[in-house]
Amino acid sequence: MSNPKRQHPMMILTGVIAQLKGLIWPIVLVLLARTLGSNPDEPFFDRFTLIITGVTLGGTLLFSVLRWLFFTYRYDHDIIEIKSGVFIKKERKIKRERIQAISLDTHVILKYLGLTSLNVETAGNLNEAEVKINVLTLLEATQLKQTLQHNGQPTEDAPSAPPNMVEVDTNTLFLAGLTSGGVGVMSLGVLFFGFQIFGIINAVTVDFKTTWQLVLAAMIALFLVLLLGWILSIIKYVLQYAAFTLQRENQELTITRGLIRKKEVVLSLDRVQAIQLIQGLIRQPLGYLTIEAKVAGARSDDAVSATVLHPLIHEREVPAFMASLFPQYVLPQTMTSSPKRARVRYLFRASWFYVLLTPMYFFVPQALFILLLWLPSVALAVLKHRAAAVSLSEDQLTLRYRNVAKSTLLVPRHHIQALTFQANPLQRWRKLKDVGLYVLSAPTPTYASVRDLELSVTDGLYEAFAHRKEADPLKTEAST
Protein backbone atom coordinates (compact mmCIF):
# COMPACT_ATOMS: atom_id res chain seq x y z
CA MET A 1 0.00 0.00 0.00
CA SER A 2 1.20 3.52 -0.76
CA ASN A 3 2.37 5.88 1.95
CA PRO A 4 -0.24 8.24 3.43
CA LYS A 5 -0.79 11.24 1.16
CA ARG A 6 -2.49 14.58 1.59
CA GLN A 7 -4.53 16.57 -0.87
CA HIS A 8 -3.01 19.40 -2.85
CA PRO A 9 -2.59 22.57 -0.71
CA MET A 10 -5.03 24.33 -3.06
CA MET A 11 -7.69 22.40 -1.11
CA ILE A 12 -7.28 25.01 1.67
CA LEU A 13 -8.41 27.81 -0.64
CA THR A 14 -11.25 25.80 -2.17
CA GLY A 15 -12.39 24.86 1.32
CA VAL A 16 -12.53 28.52 2.35
CA ILE A 17 -14.51 29.39 -0.77
CA ALA A 18 -16.92 26.50 -0.20
CA GLN A 19 -17.58 27.56 3.39
CA LEU A 20 -18.06 31.22 2.45
CA LYS A 21 -20.35 30.37 -0.47
CA GLY A 22 -23.34 30.09 1.83
CA LEU A 23 -22.67 33.58 3.19
CA ILE A 24 -22.61 35.35 -0.18
CA TRP A 25 -26.19 36.60 -0.14
CA PRO A 26 -26.15 37.74 3.53
CA ILE A 27 -22.91 39.64 2.82
CA VAL A 28 -24.42 41.27 -0.27
CA LEU A 29 -27.52 42.32 1.67
CA VAL A 30 -25.41 43.76 4.50
CA LEU A 31 -23.24 45.71 2.05
CA LEU A 32 -26.34 46.99 0.25
CA ALA A 33 -27.93 48.07 3.52
CA ARG A 34 -24.73 49.82 4.63
CA THR A 35 -24.46 51.58 1.26
CA LEU A 36 -28.04 52.87 1.28
CA GLY A 37 -28.21 53.78 4.95
CA SER A 38 -24.73 54.96 5.80
CA ASN A 39 -23.82 58.54 6.61
CA PRO A 40 -21.11 59.97 4.31
CA ASP A 41 -19.40 61.50 7.36
CA GLU A 42 -19.15 58.15 9.15
CA PRO A 43 -16.81 55.23 8.29
CA PHE A 44 -18.35 52.59 6.03
CA PHE A 45 -17.53 49.82 8.52
CA ASP A 46 -17.39 50.29 12.26
CA ARG A 47 -14.87 48.54 14.50
CA PHE A 48 -17.29 45.83 15.60
CA THR A 49 -18.09 44.85 11.99
CA LEU A 50 -14.40 44.67 11.11
CA ILE A 51 -13.67 42.46 14.14
CA ILE A 52 -16.51 40.04 13.32
CA THR A 53 -15.41 39.88 9.69
CA GLY A 54 -11.80 39.21 10.62
CA VAL A 55 -12.71 36.51 13.15
CA THR A 56 -15.00 34.81 10.60
CA LEU A 57 -12.38 34.81 7.85
CA GLY A 58 -9.62 33.73 10.22
CA GLY A 59 -11.71 30.91 11.69
CA THR A 60 -12.68 29.70 8.23
CA LEU A 61 -9.07 29.69 7.08
CA LEU A 62 -7.89 27.88 10.21
CA PHE A 63 -10.58 25.21 9.88
CA SER A 64 -9.68 24.63 6.21
CA VAL A 65 -6.00 24.25 7.11
CA LEU A 66 -6.87 21.71 9.81
CA ARG A 67 -9.13 19.78 7.44
CA TRP A 68 -6.30 19.59 4.91
CA LEU A 69 -3.79 18.59 7.58
CA PHE A 70 -5.89 15.75 9.03
CA PHE A 71 -7.13 14.35 5.70
CA THR A 72 -4.89 11.56 4.39
CA TYR A 73 -5.41 8.72 1.95
CA ARG A 74 -3.51 5.69 0.73
CA TYR A 75 -4.37 2.84 -1.60
CA ASP A 76 -3.29 -0.23 -3.47
CA HIS A 77 -5.00 -2.49 -6.02
CA ASP A 78 -7.30 -4.06 -3.38
CA ILE A 79 -8.30 -1.25 -1.04
CA ILE A 80 -8.42 2.51 -0.51
CA GLU A 81 -8.10 3.93 2.99
CA ILE A 82 -9.22 7.42 4.07
CA LYS A 83 -8.57 9.19 7.39
CA SER A 84 -10.27 12.53 8.03
CA GLY A 85 -11.85 14.75 10.66
CA VAL A 86 -10.75 17.68 12.79
CA PHE A 87 -12.78 17.10 15.95
CA ILE A 88 -14.40 13.76 15.08
CA LYS A 89 -11.95 11.33 13.52
CA LYS A 90 -13.16 9.09 10.71
CA GLU A 91 -11.39 6.16 9.10
CA ARG A 92 -12.82 4.36 6.09
CA LYS A 93 -11.50 1.37 4.19
CA ILE A 94 -13.18 0.39 0.94
CA LYS A 95 -12.40 -2.81 -0.90
CA ARG A 96 -12.07 -2.68 -4.65
CA GLU A 97 -15.00 -5.05 -5.27
CA ARG A 98 -17.36 -2.64 -3.49
CA ILE A 99 -16.52 0.24 -5.83
CA GLN A 100 -19.32 0.95 -8.31
CA ALA A 101 -17.96 4.04 -10.06
CA ILE A 102 -14.93 6.31 -10.08
CA SER A 103 -15.43 9.83 -11.43
CA LEU A 104 -13.25 12.88 -11.99
CA ASP A 105 -14.80 16.34 -11.70
CA THR A 106 -12.70 19.27 -12.92
CA HIS A 107 -13.77 22.92 -12.77
CA VAL A 108 -12.21 25.37 -15.17
CA ILE A 109 -9.93 26.84 -12.46
CA LEU A 110 -8.75 23.40 -11.32
CA LYS A 111 -8.19 22.42 -14.95
CA TYR A 112 -6.00 25.48 -15.50
CA LEU A 113 -3.91 24.48 -12.45
CA GLY A 114 -3.68 20.83 -13.49
CA LEU A 115 -5.88 19.69 -10.59
CA THR A 116 -9.10 17.70 -10.27
CA SER A 117 -11.54 16.15 -7.78
CA LEU A 118 -12.03 12.41 -7.46
CA ASN A 119 -15.16 10.59 -6.26
CA VAL A 120 -15.32 6.90 -5.39
CA GLU A 121 -18.86 5.54 -5.11
CA THR A 122 -20.27 2.35 -3.68
CA ALA A 123 -23.77 0.89 -3.86
CA GLY A 124 -24.48 1.57 -0.20
CA ASN A 125 -24.38 5.36 -0.08
CA LEU A 126 -26.79 7.41 -2.21
CA ASN A 127 -26.54 10.74 -0.41
CA GLU A 128 -22.88 11.45 -1.06
CA ALA A 129 -19.79 9.82 -2.49
CA GLU A 130 -18.24 7.21 -0.22
CA VAL A 131 -14.85 8.82 -0.80
CA LYS A 132 -14.34 12.34 -2.12
CA ILE A 133 -10.85 13.77 -2.57
CA ASN A 134 -11.52 17.41 -3.36
CA VAL A 135 -8.21 18.55 -4.82
CA LEU A 136 -5.31 16.48 -6.13
CA THR A 137 -3.12 16.58 -9.18
CA LEU A 138 -4.47 15.11 -12.39
CA LEU A 139 -1.50 12.71 -12.55
CA GLU A 140 -2.18 11.39 -9.03
CA ALA A 141 -5.92 11.08 -9.71
CA THR A 142 -5.28 9.17 -12.94
CA GLN A 143 -2.82 6.85 -11.20
CA LEU A 144 -5.26 6.16 -8.35
CA LYS A 145 -8.10 5.49 -10.78
CA GLN A 146 -6.04 3.17 -12.95
CA THR A 147 -4.73 1.25 -9.95
CA LEU A 148 -8.27 0.55 -8.72
CA GLN A 149 -9.65 0.04 -12.20
CA HIS A 150 -7.19 -2.37 -13.81
CA ASN A 151 -7.18 -5.21 -11.30
CA GLY A 152 -4.07 -4.06 -9.56
CA GLN A 153 -1.88 -3.63 -12.62
CA PRO A 154 0.67 -0.85 -12.21
CA THR A 155 -0.02 2.29 -14.17
CA GLU A 156 2.73 1.66 -16.68
CA ASP A 157 1.45 -1.90 -17.31
CA ALA A 158 -2.19 -0.92 -17.66
CA PRO A 159 -3.69 -1.42 -21.09
CA SER A 160 -3.85 1.56 -23.40
CA ALA A 161 -7.08 3.51 -23.58
CA PRO A 162 -9.67 1.89 -25.88
CA PRO A 163 -10.87 3.82 -28.94
CA ASN A 164 -13.85 6.13 -28.52
CA MET A 165 -17.17 4.46 -29.30
CA VAL A 166 -18.86 7.88 -29.29
CA GLU A 167 -17.18 11.20 -30.03
CA VAL A 168 -19.48 14.19 -30.53
CA ASP A 169 -18.22 17.21 -32.47
CA THR A 170 -19.22 20.85 -31.91
CA ASN A 171 -21.66 20.98 -34.83
CA THR A 172 -23.57 18.00 -33.47
CA LEU A 173 -23.63 19.55 -30.00
CA PHE A 174 -24.97 22.81 -31.42
CA LEU A 175 -27.74 20.88 -33.19
CA ALA A 176 -28.44 18.98 -29.97
CA GLY A 177 -28.70 22.21 -28.02
CA LEU A 178 -30.88 23.76 -30.73
CA THR A 179 -33.34 20.85 -30.47
CA SER A 180 -33.10 20.17 -26.73
CA GLY A 181 -36.05 20.47 -24.38
CA GLY A 182 -34.25 22.81 -22.01
CA VAL A 183 -35.92 25.86 -23.55
CA GLY A 184 -38.87 25.52 -21.16
CA VAL A 185 -36.79 25.63 -17.99
CA MET A 186 -34.60 28.45 -19.29
CA SER A 187 -37.65 30.45 -20.36
CA LEU A 188 -39.13 30.18 -16.88
CA GLY A 189 -35.84 31.45 -15.48
CA VAL A 190 -35.83 34.37 -17.93
CA LEU A 191 -39.44 35.17 -17.03
CA PHE A 192 -38.69 35.10 -13.30
CA PHE A 193 -35.69 37.42 -13.57
CA GLY A 194 -37.60 39.66 -15.96
CA PHE A 195 -40.33 40.17 -13.38
CA GLN A 196 -37.71 40.85 -10.72
CA ILE A 197 -35.98 43.50 -12.86
CA PHE A 198 -39.25 45.21 -13.80
CA GLY A 199 -40.30 45.20 -10.18
CA ILE A 200 -37.04 46.85 -9.10
CA ILE A 201 -36.73 49.56 -11.74
CA ASN A 202 -40.51 50.11 -12.04
CA ALA A 203 -39.90 51.67 -15.44
CA VAL A 204 -42.53 49.98 -17.59
CA THR A 205 -45.96 51.58 -17.62
CA VAL A 206 -48.29 50.54 -20.44
CA ASP A 207 -51.98 51.32 -20.70
CA PHE A 208 -53.77 48.71 -22.81
CA LYS A 209 -56.93 50.10 -24.40
CA THR A 210 -58.37 46.80 -25.64
CA THR A 211 -58.13 43.13 -24.83
CA TRP A 212 -56.45 42.43 -28.16
CA GLN A 213 -53.68 44.85 -27.35
CA LEU A 214 -53.05 42.90 -24.17
CA VAL A 215 -53.12 39.60 -26.05
CA LEU A 216 -50.72 40.92 -28.70
CA ALA A 217 -48.35 42.27 -26.04
CA ALA A 218 -48.48 38.94 -24.21
CA MET A 219 -47.66 37.06 -27.43
CA ILE A 220 -44.70 39.34 -28.19
CA ALA A 221 -43.40 39.03 -24.62
CA LEU A 222 -43.81 35.23 -24.76
CA PHE A 223 -41.90 35.10 -28.05
CA LEU A 224 -39.02 37.14 -26.64
CA VAL A 225 -38.88 35.05 -23.48
CA LEU A 226 -38.84 31.80 -25.49
CA LEU A 227 -36.19 33.15 -27.86
CA LEU A 228 -33.87 34.18 -25.05
CA GLY A 229 -34.54 30.92 -23.20
CA TRP A 230 -33.73 28.99 -26.40
CA ILE A 231 -30.41 30.82 -26.83
CA LEU A 232 -29.45 30.20 -23.19
CA SER A 233 -30.41 26.52 -23.41
CA ILE A 234 -28.16 26.10 -26.48
CA ILE A 235 -25.21 27.68 -24.67
CA LYS A 236 -25.83 25.56 -21.56
CA TYR A 237 -26.10 22.33 -23.57
CA VAL A 238 -22.94 22.96 -25.57
CA LEU A 239 -20.93 23.79 -22.43
CA GLN A 240 -22.32 20.80 -20.54
CA TYR A 241 -21.59 18.18 -23.23
CA ALA A 242 -18.55 19.69 -24.93
CA ALA A 243 -15.86 17.13 -25.84
CA PHE A 244 -18.29 14.27 -25.15
CA THR A 245 -16.66 10.85 -25.53
CA LEU A 246 -17.69 7.34 -24.54
CA GLN A 247 -15.31 4.39 -24.26
CA ARG A 248 -15.93 0.78 -23.32
CA GLU A 249 -13.34 -1.51 -21.79
CA ASN A 250 -14.51 -4.96 -20.75
CA GLN A 251 -17.51 -4.34 -18.44
CA GLU A 252 -16.82 -0.66 -17.79
CA LEU A 253 -17.83 2.53 -19.54
CA THR A 254 -15.82 5.73 -19.40
CA ILE A 255 -17.84 8.86 -20.15
CA THR A 256 -16.16 12.27 -20.44
CA ARG A 257 -17.93 15.58 -21.03
CA GLY A 258 -17.93 19.27 -20.15
CA LEU A 259 -15.97 22.41 -20.98
CA ILE A 260 -16.17 24.72 -17.97
CA ARG A 261 -16.76 21.76 -15.66
CA LYS A 262 -15.23 18.56 -17.00
CA LYS A 263 -16.66 15.28 -15.74
CA GLU A 264 -15.17 11.83 -16.26
CA VAL A 265 -17.16 8.85 -15.00
CA VAL A 266 -16.09 5.21 -14.98
CA LEU A 267 -19.28 3.16 -14.77
CA SER A 268 -19.80 -0.57 -14.41
CA LEU A 269 -22.25 -1.99 -16.95
CA ASP A 270 -23.75 -4.15 -14.20
CA ARG A 271 -25.32 -1.03 -12.70
CA VAL A 272 -27.37 -0.22 -15.81
CA GLN A 273 -30.98 -1.19 -15.11
CA ALA A 274 -32.77 0.19 -18.18
CA ILE A 275 -32.17 2.09 -21.41
CA GLN A 276 -34.31 5.09 -22.35
CA LEU A 277 -34.60 6.62 -25.81
CA ILE A 278 -35.85 10.22 -25.64
CA GLN A 279 -37.20 12.25 -28.55
CA GLY A 280 -38.25 15.87 -28.06
CA LEU A 281 -40.93 17.60 -30.11
CA ILE A 282 -38.32 19.23 -32.34
CA ARG A 283 -36.03 16.21 -32.64
CA GLN A 284 -38.73 13.71 -33.58
CA PRO A 285 -39.47 15.09 -37.09
CA LEU A 286 -35.71 15.24 -37.72
CA GLY A 287 -35.25 11.63 -36.61
CA TYR A 288 -32.83 12.41 -33.77
CA LEU A 289 -32.93 11.24 -30.16
CA THR A 290 -30.94 11.01 -26.93
CA ILE A 291 -29.96 7.72 -25.29
CA GLU A 292 -29.85 7.53 -21.49
CA ALA A 293 -29.11 4.74 -19.04
CA LYS A 294 -30.98 4.35 -15.76
CA VAL A 295 -28.30 3.48 -13.22
CA ALA A 296 -28.65 1.89 -9.79
CA GLY A 297 -26.64 3.01 -6.78
CA ALA A 298 -25.80 6.54 -7.92
CA ARG A 299 -25.98 9.63 -5.75
CA SER A 300 -28.98 11.92 -6.13
CA ASP A 301 -26.82 14.93 -7.07
CA ASP A 302 -24.69 13.08 -9.57
CA ALA A 303 -25.19 12.75 -13.30
CA VAL A 304 -24.57 9.00 -13.00
CA SER A 305 -28.16 8.53 -11.75
CA ALA A 306 -29.36 9.18 -15.33
CA THR A 307 -26.30 8.83 -17.56
CA VAL A 308 -26.38 10.19 -21.10
CA LEU A 309 -24.83 7.58 -23.39
CA HIS A 310 -25.29 9.66 -26.53
CA PRO A 311 -26.55 13.28 -26.55
CA LEU A 312 -27.75 13.18 -30.18
CA ILE A 313 -27.99 10.19 -32.48
CA HIS A 314 -30.10 9.49 -35.56
CA GLU A 315 -32.74 6.75 -35.44
CA ARG A 316 -31.03 4.71 -38.16
CA GLU A 317 -27.83 4.55 -36.07
CA VAL A 318 -29.51 3.35 -32.87
CA PRO A 319 -29.64 -0.42 -33.67
CA ALA A 320 -25.90 -0.57 -34.39
CA PHE A 321 -25.11 1.49 -31.29
CA MET A 322 -27.23 -0.75 -29.05
CA ALA A 323 -25.82 -3.93 -30.59
CA SER A 324 -22.25 -2.84 -29.88
CA LEU A 325 -22.87 -1.58 -26.35
CA PHE A 326 -25.95 -3.38 -24.99
CA PRO A 327 -26.72 -6.41 -27.17
CA GLN A 328 -29.12 -7.75 -24.52
CA TYR A 329 -31.48 -4.83 -25.19
CA VAL A 330 -33.61 -5.31 -28.30
CA LEU A 331 -35.58 -2.59 -30.08
CA PRO A 332 -39.04 -4.06 -30.76
CA GLN A 333 -40.14 -4.10 -34.38
CA THR A 334 -43.84 -3.79 -33.50
CA MET A 335 -45.65 -2.48 -30.43
CA THR A 336 -49.27 -2.66 -29.27
CA SER A 337 -50.70 0.87 -29.17
CA SER A 338 -53.50 2.41 -27.17
CA PRO A 339 -56.85 1.86 -28.96
CA LYS A 340 -58.55 4.67 -30.89
CA ARG A 341 -61.44 4.88 -28.44
CA ALA A 342 -59.00 5.94 -25.73
CA ARG A 343 -58.20 9.19 -27.54
CA VAL A 344 -61.20 10.92 -26.00
CA ARG A 345 -59.72 10.35 -22.54
CA TYR A 346 -56.46 12.01 -23.57
CA LEU A 347 -58.40 14.96 -25.01
CA PHE A 348 -60.49 15.26 -21.84
CA ARG A 349 -57.43 15.39 -19.61
CA ALA A 350 -56.01 18.17 -21.82
CA SER A 351 -59.23 20.23 -21.83
CA TRP A 352 -60.99 20.01 -18.45
CA PHE A 353 -58.92 22.81 -16.90
CA TYR A 354 -59.85 25.31 -19.64
CA VAL A 355 -63.51 24.30 -19.45
CA LEU A 356 -63.59 24.97 -15.71
CA LEU A 357 -62.21 28.46 -16.36
CA THR A 358 -65.08 29.34 -18.73
CA PRO A 359 -67.03 31.52 -16.21
CA MET A 360 -63.91 33.60 -15.57
CA TYR A 361 -63.75 34.69 -19.21
CA PHE A 362 -67.01 36.64 -18.79
CA PHE A 363 -65.82 38.55 -15.72
CA VAL A 364 -62.17 39.00 -16.76
CA PRO A 365 -62.03 39.30 -20.58
CA GLN A 366 -58.24 39.65 -20.45
CA ALA A 367 -58.08 36.02 -19.34
CA LEU A 368 -59.03 34.97 -22.87
CA PHE A 369 -55.33 34.79 -23.74
CA ILE A 370 -55.21 31.60 -21.62
CA LEU A 371 -57.17 29.96 -24.43
CA LEU A 372 -54.08 30.32 -26.59
CA LEU A 373 -52.65 27.40 -24.62
CA TRP A 374 -55.68 25.18 -25.22
CA LEU A 375 -54.81 24.27 -28.80
CA PRO A 376 -51.21 23.22 -27.97
CA SER A 377 -52.58 21.15 -25.06
CA VAL A 378 -54.99 19.34 -27.36
CA ALA A 379 -52.25 18.76 -29.93
CA LEU A 380 -49.96 17.36 -27.24
CA ALA A 381 -52.78 15.07 -26.05
CA VAL A 382 -53.10 13.63 -29.57
CA LEU A 383 -49.35 13.01 -29.66
CA LYS A 384 -49.50 11.33 -26.25
CA HIS A 385 -52.19 8.96 -27.50
CA ARG A 386 -50.20 8.10 -30.62
CA ALA A 387 -47.09 7.40 -28.55
CA ALA A 388 -48.75 5.16 -25.94
CA ALA A 389 -47.68 1.58 -26.65
CA VAL A 390 -46.21 -1.51 -25.02
CA SER A 391 -44.26 -4.55 -26.15
CA LEU A 392 -43.34 -7.76 -24.31
CA SER A 393 -40.73 -10.28 -25.38
CA GLU A 394 -39.29 -13.27 -23.59
CA ASP A 395 -36.61 -11.22 -21.80
CA GLN A 396 -37.71 -7.58 -22.03
CA LEU A 397 -40.64 -5.25 -21.43
CA THR A 398 -40.76 -2.06 -23.50
CA LEU A 399 -42.94 0.96 -22.70
CA ARG A 400 -43.45 3.90 -25.02
CA TYR A 401 -45.08 7.04 -23.66
CA ARG A 402 -44.92 10.82 -23.86
CA ASN A 403 -44.98 13.63 -21.33
CA VAL A 404 -43.65 16.32 -23.65
CA ALA A 405 -40.78 14.34 -25.14
CA LYS A 406 -41.49 10.83 -26.39
CA SER A 407 -39.72 8.15 -24.36
CA THR A 408 -39.11 4.49 -25.10
CA LEU A 409 -38.01 2.56 -22.00
CA LEU A 410 -36.31 -0.82 -22.52
CA VAL A 411 -36.28 -2.89 -19.32
CA PRO A 412 -35.07 -6.48 -18.92
CA ARG A 413 -37.61 -8.54 -17.00
CA HIS A 414 -35.27 -9.30 -14.12
CA HIS A 415 -34.62 -5.56 -13.59
CA ILE A 416 -38.28 -4.71 -13.01
CA GLN A 417 -38.86 -4.02 -9.32
CA ALA A 418 -42.67 -3.85 -9.50
CA LEU A 419 -45.36 -3.96 -12.16
CA THR A 420 -48.63 -2.11 -11.50
CA PHE A 421 -52.05 -2.20 -13.17
CA GLN A 422 -54.86 0.21 -12.37
CA ALA A 423 -58.21 1.32 -13.78
CA ASN A 424 -60.86 3.76 -12.54
CA PRO A 425 -64.62 3.13 -13.08
CA LEU A 426 -64.67 5.02 -16.39
CA GLN A 427 -61.73 3.01 -17.66
CA ARG A 428 -63.40 -0.25 -16.64
CA TRP A 429 -66.50 0.84 -18.53
CA ARG A 430 -64.40 1.50 -21.63
CA LYS A 431 -62.35 -1.69 -21.05
CA LEU A 432 -59.11 0.20 -20.62
CA LYS A 433 -56.32 -0.03 -18.05
CA ASP A 434 -53.02 1.67 -17.17
CA VAL A 435 -49.77 -0.23 -16.78
CA GLY A 436 -46.69 1.02 -14.94
CA LEU A 437 -43.36 -0.29 -13.74
CA TYR A 438 -40.63 0.61 -11.26
CA VAL A 439 -36.93 0.32 -12.03
CA LEU A 440 -34.17 0.64 -9.46
CA SER A 441 -32.37 3.98 -9.76
CA ALA A 442 -31.26 6.88 -7.58
CA PRO A 443 -32.39 8.79 -5.60
CA THR A 444 -35.77 7.03 -5.97
CA PRO A 445 -36.93 4.23 -8.26
CA THR A 446 -37.81 5.30 -11.79
CA TYR A 447 -41.53 5.00 -12.55
CA ALA A 448 -42.92 4.86 -16.07
CA SER A 449 -46.48 4.19 -17.18
CA VAL A 450 -48.61 3.87 -20.29
CA ARG A 451 -52.20 5.00 -19.93
CA ASP A 452 -55.42 3.59 -21.41
CA LEU A 453 -54.25 0.37 -22.98
CA GLU A 454 -56.62 -2.32 -24.22
CA LEU A 455 -57.82 -4.48 -21.32
CA SER A 456 -56.86 -7.68 -23.13
CA VAL A 457 -53.30 -6.34 -23.52
CA THR A 458 -52.85 -5.50 -19.85
CA ASP A 459 -54.42 -8.82 -18.82
CA GLY A 460 -51.92 -10.57 -21.07
CA LEU A 461 -49.06 -8.73 -19.37
CA TYR A 462 -50.42 -9.65 -15.97
CA GLU A 463 -50.67 -13.32 -16.88
CA ALA A 464 -47.17 -13.31 -18.38
CA PHE A 465 -45.61 -11.98 -15.18
CA ALA A 466 -47.91 -13.57 -12.58
CA HIS A 467 -47.12 -17.13 -13.67
CA ARG A 468 -43.35 -16.82 -13.78
CA LYS A 469 -41.04 -19.01 -11.74
CA GLU A 470 -40.97 -18.43 -7.99
CA ALA A 471 -37.25 -17.66 -8.26
CA ASP A 472 -38.11 -14.52 -10.18
CA PRO A 473 -37.90 -11.59 -7.74
CA LEU A 474 -40.48 -9.56 -9.71
CA LYS A 475 -43.42 -8.23 -7.69
CA THR A 476 -46.69 -7.75 -9.56
CA GLU A 477 -49.45 -5.50 -8.24
CA ALA A 478 -52.97 -5.05 -9.60
CA SER A 479 -55.42 -2.43 -8.41
CA THR A 480 -58.80 -1.38 -9.69
Please, could you describe this protein's structure?
The radius of gyration is 28 Å and the shape is globular. The strands form 4 sheets. It has a 7-stranded antiparallel sheet with strand order 6-5-4-10-9-8-7. It has a 7-stranded antiparallel sheet with strand order 13-12-11-17-16-15-14. The chain has a 4-stranded mixed sheet with strand order 20-19-18-21. A hairpin with a 3-residue loop joins strand 1 and strand 2 (about 80-85). Among the domains are: about 10-155, no CATH class; about 330-480, Pleckstrin-homology domain (PH domain)/Phosphotyrosine-binding domain (PTB) (PH-domain like, Roll), CATH 2.30.29. About 40% of the residues lie in helices and about 30% in strands. The model is unreliable at about 200-205, about 300-305 and about 470-480 (pLDDT under 50). With about 475 residues, it is an alpha+beta fold. The protein has helices at about 10-20, 25-35, 45-70, 110, 140-150, 170-180, 185-200, 210-240, 285, 320-325, 345-355, 360-365, 375-385, 425-430, 455-465, and strands spanning about 70-75, 80-85, 90-95, 100-105, 115-120, 130-135, 165, 245-250, 250-255, 260-270, 270-280, 290-295, 305-315, 335, 390, 395-400, 405-410, 415-420, 430-440, 445-455, 475-480. Helix 1 crosses helix 3 (about 45-70) and helix 6 runs antiparallel to helix 8 (about 210-240).
CATH class of the domain at 330-480: Mainly Beta
Helical/strand content category: alpha+beta
* Strand line-up in the sheet with most strands: 6-5-4-10-9-8-7
Q: Give average pLDDT, whole number.
A: 79
Approximate helicity band: 25-40%
How far is it from the N-terminal to the C-terminal residue, by CA? 60 Å
- The CATH architecture term of the domain at 330-480 is Roll
Percent range for β-strand residues? 25-35%
User: What is the makeup of the main sheet?
Assistant: 7 strands, antiparallel
The CATH superfamily of the domain at 330-480 appears as Pleckstrin-homology domain (PH domain)/Phosphotyrosine-binding domain (PTB)
What is the 3D form? globular
Which ranges are low-confidence, i.e. pLDDT below 50, for 5 or more consecutive residues?
199-204, 300-305, 469-480
Number of strands: 21
Q: Over all CA atoms, what is the radius of gyration? A: 28 Å
Number of helices: 15
